[in-house]
Design a protein that fits this description.
The chain is an all-alpha fold. Helices cover 95% and strands 0% of the residues. The chain has one helix and no strands. 0% of the residues are buried.
Length: 41
């Protein structure tokens, strides 16, 4: 039980971390696109 509980915690942490990284990547791409649009204008 303890091992499975630890595995669940690790999986949850990895999922949250991956989601945060994905959000950061989206924000970075959106910022770059916005900057590119302003430069083109």
């Amino acid at each position: 039980m303890k091992v499975s509980y630890q595995k669940r915690i690790v999986i949850m942490i990895t999922l949250i971390f991956s989601l945060l990284l994905a959000l950061l990547n989206v924000v970075k791409t959106n910022g770059v696109i916005k900057e590119g649009d302003t430069v083109q204008k």
